[in-house]
Amino acid sequence: MAILKIARMGHPVLGRRAEPVADPTTPAISRLLADMAETMADAGGVGLAAPQVHVPLRIVLFCVPEARCTGSDDANGPLPLTCLINPEIEPLGDEIEDGWEACLSVPGLTGLVPRFTRIRYRGLTPVGGELMREASGFHARVVQHECDHLDGVLYPRRMRDLSNLGFVEEMQRARAQ
Ligand code: NI
Known about the structure:
Elements: H1 27-43, E1 47-49, E2 59-64, E3 79-91, E4 96-101, E5 109-116, E6 118-124, E7 130-136, H2 137-150, E8 165-167, H3 168-176
Antiparallel strand pairs: 1-2, 2-3, 3-6, 4-5, 5-8, 6-7
C-alpha cells in the first residue's frame, strides 16, 4: 500500500471527465483502491475520487463518520468505507439544501454548496457486484461531491454565492464570533 499524491485545484486531471472502469476486479484496481483508502485516511478525508490521485477513472471512495451523520436511518446514518465504481446518481425529488463542504484538492478552504437532499445511487463494487442505495443529508452530499470529481467538477463551481467561500480557519473564527 502507498500514500498517493493528491492533485490540487488547477491540475488538468481534476477538470476532465474520467473514463469508465472496464473490469473492477483486476489486481491493478484493487491495488489502487487500497492505496486510495490509505491516502484518504492519512489526509483525514471522508471521500476521495480517483482523479484526485491522478488516475482518470470513474472510482470513488467515501464514508459517513458518526460525527457527520445527519440522521440515523439507513439513508443518512453512519456508513463504513464504501467503494463505488462507474457510479450513477439519480435525484429523488427536487429538494435542494445548502451545506458546508471541503475538498482534499482545495486544501484549507470551505464553501457553502447546494446539493440534492435525497438521491439514489448505483455502481459496481470491487468484487464485481452491483450496489444500489438511497441516501439523504450528509451521505447524499458526499456522494454528489465525489461523483462530481468524475465529471471534472470541483465544489466551488457548484456554489451560488462565492462570498461563502473562504479559509476554514477564518470561517470558523467568524462563525464563533
Ligand atoms: Ni473533493
